[in-house]
Amino acid sequence: MNEHFTAPALDVPAITARQVLKSFKGQEVLRGVDMTVEQGEVACLIGPSGSGKSTFLRCVNHLEKIDGGALYVDGEMVGYRRVGNRLHELKDAEVSARRARIGMVFQRFNLFGHMTALQNVAEAPMQVKGESREMAFERARELLVRVGLGHRLEAYPSQLSGGQQQRVAIARALAMKPRLMLFDEPTSALDPELVGEVLDVMRDLASEGMTMLIVTHEMHFAREVASKVAFMDQGAIVECTSPAQLFEQPRHPRTREFLSKVI
Ligand code: ADP
Ligand code: MG
């Protein structure tokens, strides 16, 4: 096990969602999402466009506030602190502190264009955690080597391929030593020949015990790497089970219909 990728074990799930509700201007987008992601587990979330997958990830990361139900990360209610029997809404600084424990990788890499790969990865540990420049750059270098970019440390994003940029984005998320990584269609914006190098990095992370929740259309990857796969449709988890069960013997007709279109 690599010390960068493992966090002390907790005896609570990494994510617990119970009947999570979320609406935008009266439109119900999450209609009672139930899901548990255990520590060290790799869970994939699949489903049609518009089914609420990104919204759910954003709720886990407190980028959106839920309207109902309950959502816990590492046993702590997202957005709240319990004092005795009362819940107190977190202040912005507390929200940021908790969010720093969660790494998020999006479809678009969102790297800083005016910074080298090394600077991109070292930036948040220095700015958010106050790490020394030496420490932050040393770790950034290690992480970039880890994702196969040891030879591109000084490259700017515009000089990197999409797959390389996404690997920098993953290294950047890892630099904050997250306990949990959320991926939202990390390979969807990539040319097909660049998808594999990003999935390889994610596969490595999984094998090192990182807890991951991954929204993806890469069914082969989900089949091979996930410990569980959840199918989301119309704002709810229709079916959540082992990849073997979900892909070979889906129980729900909506799951079967979706899989027949994408595989
Ligand atoms: P998915 O990621 O599965 O494609 P999303 O979570 O992005 O689905 O979106 C689910 C629904 O919520 C869509 O109908 C989308 O238009 C709507 N939605 C998402 N974010 C917002 C927002 N900030 N404001 C209004 N509607 C939104
Ligand atoms: Mg989405």
Structural features:
single chain; 263 residues; alpha/beta; Rossmann fold; 2 domains; six-stranded mixed beta sheet; four-stranded antiparallel beta sheet; 9 helices; 12 strands; 26% strand; globular; binds adenosine-5'-diphosphate; binds magnesium ion
Report on the architecture of this protein.
This protein is of the alpha/beta class and 263 residues long. It has 2 domains: 9-101 and 180-263, 3-Layer(aba) Sandwich (Rossmann fold); 108-178, no CATH class. It contains 9 helices and 12 strands. It has helices spanning 53-60, 92-99, 117-127, 133-146, 162-174, 192-207, 219-225, 243-248, 253-262, and strands spanning 15-24, 27-37, 42-46, 68-73, 76-77, 80-83, 86-89, 102-105, 180-184, 211-215, 228-233, 236-241. It has a 6-stranded mixed beta sheet, with helices on both faces. A 4-stranded antiparallel beta sheet has the order 2-1-4-5, with helices on one face. The two termini are 34 Å apart. The mean pLDDT is 94. The protein binds adenosine-5'-diphosphate (ADP) and magnesium ion. Residues 53-54, 184 line the site of magnesium ion. Magnesium ion binds next to helix 1.
CATH class of the largest domain: Alpha Beta
Outline: globular
Our count of helices gives 9
**Biggest sheet architecture:** 6 strands, mixed
Label the structural class: alpha/beta
List SSEs in N-to-C order. EEEHEEEEHEHHHEHEHEEHH
Low-confidence stretches: none
Give me the CATH superfamily of the largest domain.
Answer: P-loop containing nucleotide triphosphate hydrolases
The count of strands amounts to 12
Mean pLDDT across all amino acids: 94
Which small compounds were modeled alongside the protein? adenosine-5'-diphosphate, magnesium ion
Radius of gyration over alpha carbons? 18 Å
What is the CATH topology classification name of the largest domain? Rossmann fold
Strand order of the biggest β-sheet: 8-9-10-3-11-12
